[in-house]
Specification:
heterodimer; A: mainly alpha; Fumarate Reductase Cytochrome B subunit; 5 helices; elongated; B: alpha+beta; Catalase HpII,  Chain A, domain 1; 10-stranded antiparallel β-sheet; 7 helices; globular; binds protoporphyrin IX containing FE
């Protein structure tokens, strides 16, 4: 029989997961660092934040596509139902936030009437109409959802290490390496 | 048939092993969370952040929901900029192309966080402009009517703001504290010299406005030229000045009256630095004799109140620049960009009725007129 379900994420899925994990954590640190700074650092961090955020939007589209095509290895059969549900829920939340954060960043600049400068002379078109109330709401959402994303990642990291160090049930290695 | 090897049996963890592994997990999470909090400045209340600067504007003038935290009192203006083309060889920005007409939304204002301050109270006027290039890029700039800025760094700006906080007894800044600040900051001397003889003007129209911070012009060949820009009015004030009208809002009235008779004009002048002129110090004027380029004419055609006009929702962030203009190493520029964003976030949140994150300000001040 050749149809045993894969026990590991495919190589593209793993590469994307770890690349994006590093970049999203970097985006969160850059974000809170830049809004707490008045030095030149503020300026150059903003200039990294925008193109990197848009790059992550492109990557998450690709990642979702691969995920829907290739699926994910099943969780261990002996995992309690509540943990199973939490795992699915948190992955859903992570995917949602990975889409929402860059879209909100882009639309809040559009709503604030700013030119959305990607890099140098390269501009993105506005994706929502200019409107200060919309700007205000999106700007707050960008902050609160960033914190929610960070907390979810902390939980996700904790759970991944729990699987890897304590349960040792192959969940960690399903993302960490290829077939044994 | 699966030919996967059966996984080797996992050794059972002793309770001690389980506890220490849990400990490792908690430490990893705590470290990451701590690094995040440190980066965001929450563990370091001494850090000079945009939030702290905006809070001290609010402390000084009260919180006036919906208004700018500085230059709170002003009016919107609309017009256009007609380029001579003289600047095109220094900068590739579309706005400088020969004969180009670029629409402009501007705002005249007086400095200070109180939107109801009397116009005669300060000798400084300001003009902020947003040029909308046809290619979608924008140029935003804010200019003041003084020839130099009092301080060179954001830190000194903050100290000045602290020194000029009103004291409860008089409602005015403590003169001793101000004196001590200026004594500790000799770079303020050129500004103090100017302010001694400066009188509040009776009109926005007769003032010259100076960008104060330096920038770089970049042309098609990639050559950079350090520059400071300004606006020189075509209207002239009555010699010896004019008695100020009794109405505390005389500037807006004067502006509307003048505009009823036709557009007002300024020349956009680019002062080109010689090698060695400081680009990082807004307290120092460049010596006389620098090349001055007349880049074109600004025509302002109409005015509207700021609470309904098109300038209300613009953040005149001095780092929104078109290609062809780059920021200099002046440390005030990054600080202005960061602080204006926070001011903008707060005032638009107040308009929207949502509360801005991280807001630590005193309660809203009452409109004295309502
Ligand atoms: C920081 C260290 C991280 C570790 C150690 C880690 C570890 C893991 C592991 C072991 C899995 C596999 C779980 C399973 O088998 O279902 C996984 C899945 C996942 N991770 Fe991470 N991760 C990290 C960071 C992140 C970050 C920053 C994000 C994105 C915001 C993220 C998003 C996801 C998502 C969405 C899945 C589910 C994959 C799917 O079902 O398509 N991870 N992670
Ligand atoms: C993965 C995507 C993103 C993440 C995780 C992220 C995260 C953050 C964080 C944590 C902040 C600080 C919020 C605060 O403390 O108030 C922030 C601010 C900001 N972000 Fe993002 N962001 C993302 C994408 C984007 C994109 C795509 C853009 C624009 C194209 C953008 C534009 C901004 C701007 C303009 C600010 C505020 C700057 C200021 O107010 O001075 N972000 N972001
Ligand atoms: C670190 C130094 C400075 C700080 C902290 C500061 C702070 C502020 C703040 C908070 C606003 C209100 C922004 C808004 O809500 O849209 C403002 C407006 C303004 N500032 Fe500054 N400023 C600084 C330096 C300067 C300099 C050097 C200039 C002159 C060249 C300048 C000219 C203006 C003008 C013209 C406005 C009014 C803009 C408008 O009409 O909307 N500022 N400033």
């Amino acid at each position: 029989m050749s149809t045993t379900p894969a026990t590991n994420f495919s190589l593209p899925a793993r590469v994307l997961h770890w690349t994006m994990a590093v970049l999203i954590l970097a985006m969160l640190f850059i974000g809170v660092g830049m809004v707490a700074s008045i030095s030149e650092r503020h300026e150059w961090l903003v200039q990294i934040h925008k193109p990197l955020g848009i790059a992550l939007l492109v990557l998450v589209v690709l990642r979702l596509f691969i995920r829907l095509k290739r699926g994910a290895p099943p969780l261990p059969a002996d995992l309690p139902g509540i943990q199973r549900r939490l795992a699915h829920l948190s992955h859903l939340a992570l995917y949602l936030l990975m889409f929402l954060m860059p879209l909100i960043g882009w639309s809040m600049l559009s709503a604030g009437g700013y030119p959305v400068i990607l890099y140098g002379p390269v501009l993105l078109p506005p994706i929502v109409p200019e409107n200060p109330l919309l700007f205000a709401i999106l700007r707050q959402a960008h902050t609160y959802l960033a914190f929610l994303l960070f907390l979810t990642i902390l939980g996700h990291l904790g759970a991944a290490l729990y699987h890897g160090l304590i349960r040792r049930d192959g969940v960690f290695s399903s993302m960490a390496r290829g077939k044994p | 048939m699966s030919d996967q090897p059966t996984p080797p049996p996992k050794p059972i963890l002793s309770p001690f092993q389980t506890a220490s592994r849990l400990g490792v997990i908690l430490v990893v999470i705590a470290l990451l969370g701590g690094a995040f909090a440190y980066t965001g400045g929450w563990l370091d209340p001494q850090r000079l952040t945009p939030t702290r600067i905006v809070d001290s504007f609010e402390q000084a003038s009260g919180r006036h929901p919906g208004f700018r935290r500085n230059h709170a009192k002003g009016v919107c203006v609309v017009g256009l900029f007609v380029s001579t083309g003289a600047a095109a060889k220094f900068s590739s920005a579309e706005v400088f192309a020969p004969g180009r007409r670029t629409p402009v939304v501007g705002r005249f204002a007086i400095p200070g966080g109180n939107p109801y301050a009397p116009d005669g109270g300060v000798p400084i006027r300001s003009l902020a402009l947003r040029f909308n290039q046809l290619n979608g890029q924008q140029w935003r700039t804010g200019m003041n009517s003084m020839p130099v800025f009092p301080v060179a760094t954001p830190q000194a700006f903050y100290e000045q703001l602290q020194a000029s906080q009103p004291v409860a007894a008089t409602g005015k800044p403590d003169p001793e504290r101000m004196k001590a600040f200026f004594a500790a900051h000799p770079e303020t001397a050129p500004f103090l010299q100017w302010v001694k003889s400066a009188k509040p003007s009776a009109s926005f129209a007769t003032e010259a406005y100076n960008g104060l911070n330096a920038f770089f012009l970049v042309n098609d060949a990639g050559q950079r030229q350090a520059v400071r820009w300004g606006l020189v009015p075509e209207e002239t004030a009555q010699p010896g000045g004019q008695p100020l009208p009794a109405d505390p809002d005389f500037l807006a009235q004067d502006l509307a009256q003048r505009l009823a008779h036709g557009p007002l004009r300024w020349h956009l002048t680019l002062i080109l630095a010689n090698p060695g002129d400081p680009t990082n110090d807004a307290t120092k004027q460049w010596p006389a004799g620098r090349t001055v380029v007349d880049a074109g004419t600004l025509l302002l055609q109409s005015t509207e109140p700021q609470d309904s006009g098109p300038c209300r929702d613009i953040n005149y962030d001095p780092l929104v620049l078109p290609t062809g203009i780059l920021p200099s190493d002046d440390p005030l520029l990054a600080a202005r960009s960061a602080v204006y964003a926070t001011s903008y976030e707060r005032r638009t949140s107040e308009e929207a009725g949502v509360s801005a994150a991280g807001h630590t300000a005193p309660p809203a001040a009452k409109d004295p007129r309502s």
